[in-house]
Amino acid sequence: MKRYLVMWFVGLPILLVMLPAALVYLFSPSSGSGGLPQQTAAPVSGPVHQSSVEVKVYRQEKKTVETLPLEAYIEGVVAAEMPAEFEMEALKAQAMAARTYIIRRLKSQQFDDVPGGAQVTDTVKHQAFVDEEQRRENWKEQFTWKNNRIRQAVLATAGVVLTYDGQPIDATFFSTSNGFTENASEYFESPVPYLKSVASPWDIQSPRYENTVKISLAELEKRLGVKLANTASTSGNWYQILERTTGNRVGKVSIGGKEFSGREFREKLGLHSSAFTMELRGSDVYITTKGYGHGVGMSQWGANGMAKTGKTAEQIVKYFYQGVHLENFDPILKEQTASAGKLSANF
């Protein structure tokens, strides 16, 4: 009898510890799955080429065209566009956005903006891209673990694109917001139902969240094509913010008798963001910006911040791209193949 009591008092605490863990294991969804369409598993160290679709990339420095398997191309884009140190779920979100971008281009068959018969460039005009040799050179002794993380993210999302009404979306992304993303209609002047302004408070952690540049008054006048007569003697009223956007950026600004959209002002002066304030100090203008990039779509630092709070890649992309769905791209391109005969249907 005493032996049974000893076993009871010893076993009960163990049972109380183990039972909750067992229940969590049995009833929790698979870690990191995020509801992604199922893909064929493959080792992280193996090839990521799970599709016969190829991408013709114009290499800007070499002035040549390289043909790459789709998923190898996505690896190079994610490696160029997002730090490998970012959270895995953020890297997966970036992989889906990058894949969606190129699938949308392949479906449209509109490549007039690319030379040499290519389909996309390796620059930010489309999507930045670095090949394996460049990654080895850039990452040096850190190449193996960084490349494995990028490959893992691409493998985990292989073939998955973001769609709206059954079509691949314009999956725009950028580095850092000012705390909010922007409505597409307020920056690109064209409304897009899934590109709506949302809060992104995580971006304050970005090293590019705030930046101040100094421009001489003469240089500012030259770039904007204005003349600021007697500006130094007019305190505080030498420029006016006429409109602000939903994402709290400058929508319209008046300076030197001219009006500019926030985008025009940013591009003419080469600013990090259209969320800016200005201060005149003698013959110099100090311009402070918040955020880095156009602000439309997915914020990369916002995605990383969400991932740090436990959000999945699916939750991240559905937050920044409102109302989208995750689908395999096969049916999307098979339809194109049937009509154009330009892409292989053997996915």
Features:
347 residues, three-stranded mixed beta sheet, three-stranded antiparallel beta sheet, disordered N terminus, transmembrane helix, 2 domains, globular, 11 helices, alpha+beta, disordered C terminus
Task: Look at the helices and sheets and give the structural class.
Answer: alpha+beta
Which outline best applies? globular
Give the amount of beta strand, in percent: 15-25%
Binned, the helix content reads: 25-40%
Mean pLDDT, as a whole number?
A: 85
Query: What is the count of helical runs?
Result: 11
Question: How many E strands?
Answer: 14
| Separation, N- and C-terminal Cα atoms | 67 Å
Rg is 25 Å
Strand order of the largest sheet: 2-1-3
Uncertain residue ranges:
1-10, 12-34, 38-49, 340-347
Strand-and-helix sequence, N→C?
A: HEEHHEHHEEEHEHEEEHEEEHHEH
Oligomer: single chain
Structurally, the number of domains stands at: 2
Main sheet, how many strands, which sense, barrel? Answer: 3 strands, mixed
GO cellular component, one term: outer membrane-bounded periplasmic space
Transmembrane segments: 6-27
Keywords: Membrane, Transmembrane, Transmembrane helix
Pfam families: SpoIID (PF08486)
